[in-house]
Specification:
This protein has four domains: 48 residues, Phosphorylase Kinase, domain 1 (2-Layer Sandwich); 276 residues, Rossmann fold (3-Layer(aba) Sandwich); 194 residues, 3-Layer(aba) Sandwich (Dimethylsulfoxide Reductase, domain 2), CATH 3.40.228.10; 117 residues, Beta Barrel (Barwin-like endoglucanases), CATH 2.40.40. α18 crosses α20. The chain is α/β, with parallel strands linked by helices. It has a seven-stranded mixed β-sheet with strand order 5-4-18-17-16-6-7, sandwiched between helices. A hairpin with an 8-residue loop joins β1 and β2. The protein is built from 25 helices and 28 strands. It starts with a strand and ends with a strand. The structure holds iron/sulfur cluster. Iron/sulfur cluster (SF4) binds next to α1 and α7. Belongs to the prokaryotic molybdopterin-containing oxidoreductase family. NasA/NapA/NarB subfamily. Keywords: 4Fe-4S, Iron, Iron-sulfur, Metal-binding, Molybdenum, Nitrate assimilation, Oxidoreductase. This is Molybdopterin-dependent oxidoreductase.
Amino acid sequence: MMTVRTTCPYCGVGCGVKATPMAHGAIIEGDPDHMANRGRLCVKGAALGETLDLDGRLLAPAIRDEQGLREAGWDEALAKVASTFAAIVAEHGPDAVALYVSGQLLTEDYYVANKFMKGFIGSANIDTNSRLCMSSSVAGHKRAFGEDLVPGCYEDFELADLIVLVGSNAAWCHPTLFQRIAKARELRPHLRIVAIDPRRTATCESADLHLPIKPGTDVWLFNGLLAYLAHSGAVDSAFIDAHTNGLEAALEAAGECASIEFVARHCGIDPRLLVEFYELFAASDKVVTAFSQGVNQSTSGTDKVNAIINCHLVTGRIGKPGMGPFSLTGQPNAMGGREVGGLANMLAAHLELDQPAHRELVRTFWDAPRIAARPGLKAVEMFRAIEEGGIKAVWIMATNPVASLPDADQVRRALARCELVVVSDMSAATDTAAHAHVLLPALGWGEKDGTVTNSERCISRQRAFLDAPGQARADWWALCQVARRMGFHGFDYRDAHAIFGEHARLSAWRNDETGVPRAFRIDGLAGLSRAGYDGLAPIQWPVGAAGEGSARLFTDGRYAHADGKARFVATVPRAPANPADRAYPIVLNTGRLRDQWHTMTRTGKSPRLANHAPEPCVDLHPHDALLAGVREGELARVSSRWGAMVARVSHGGGIARGSAFIPIHWTGQNASDARVGAVVNPAVDPVSGEPEFKHTPVRIEPFAVA
Ligand code: SF4
């Protein structure tokens, strides 16, 4: 049997995997040569071989008509999608159709989807489930650095003196990176870890200091840190003068937070713990501040990101080994999607939709008949527009919004009234597939071929090692087939290599020919031969013309703003959109479990992964459970102003009084409808459009089985 080097399809760490196909599944090992994991795997990655069977797979296209769902050939299904899209665009304009895609797609799929919508349909109504996990980081990076750039690399965690983990349960959600941190701590005992999280998670248990912050108050905490650093003189004045703008305004916005008591009161943290953290941050030479969904999934998400970056800029701790702000992406290819303009407000190659010169540049490169004239609708807005009738056809790829978007019952209503719902997926048994008029069978991990980019900007190959099952095809292929049936040119790619080459050439052409320099470039990969692409070793962008990668950005102190300087952003603290009240007194937080991934389409196949948490639980403090009249092990109804679900009461999860936690993985396909998305409020960050998954007021009541 031949062993193939590929990349794990789950979290944003992007571990290298060696897969050896067997009669039933595959032998899975960590790739010792991959820079992300150096041979390590977490329990999810190690169980990949148990998830490769064809149970529940969608193996042929299907069309729903008056009699129900029936199998159809590719020709009929593609013709229906193309003709309906074309008719709707002709009658109602390009903004009447939409694509909703996923961080599970490969970069090549993402590239073609964006070219199809933005360059040929002529609408930017293409958004992604990455909107739900890291769009606040994208917006924060752009405000601070002028471009969406993660400055550092995983090695920085091993070189740091202090690692601050904010809203990140890395021990469960980015496990091999956390293993690297644990190993670094053994080798360098002075390394300190501070965890900032409302829950006492597995990550907090391992930390030297846990700040149990009140949900949603991170801007107060980091504004307080900025003020503390400034007033205690722990700043790098030379760096600030040479490489930044805007410190005075940021300090003014942080004004009240100069008082430790004020910050401690707002954040619900013991002032002594706060001072301990501030002193540690000020005194440590090398600091990495890593943040994840606890920061991003907030109506202040973008400000939280900038409040963190401000503290690194004021100390000059960026662009150097062992230091920097670090956004931990959730999905395997959230970063790759950003490279090709995977969000409704972006263009390919890190160009901007709201800049005419950038639009013309991409239109010319694609030889496209038109280009989207303005940013499209972001995820939550998109499904509202579907319900209101503005969008009449939607193509959903590799994601399950009826379970995973906030106010998920609204998404269900939207799809129920949409004229055409196309779903490309591996499975026909998702909440979203139940609404499809056309189902298209997609290749899954181990079957598809392309690239992904992880949190440290490392481009890795996902390689096929299994035959395509049934009639399943690559997502880029289905998009090209529809595009060609709509009369569009430029969609005749032979394979993923041809798409990657075009993507790489766009980044090179943009910088060299048009005078729109961006740090994202992969020039050195533009001329890769088929064999070179097949054998591509993991490499971090920017990749220069000579083919060399880059571990760190900003080493020369130059940023992507026109004046070459980074920006402090004045961040004014504000409370979450929907406060708890008498009717809904508990603040619901949602997130991932250690052993499951998204809505369990793949991880749900492994019994040993299911053992960790066999059913959905609501973690409650015993005091709140008592007040609600529920006991540990009993079923409870969890309701908000948007919807309700049932879960079993648990006192695990290190939950504080007044809070609850429910994992995101269960769906309406389970015995009872266990979609926590139905409960979550749909408020979004005004800058990034990212929903506030971490703060929904709910009521807990006993649930009686009828
Ligand atoms: Fe996969 Fe993430 Fe686990 Fe690595 S840490 S094996 S990428 S789930």
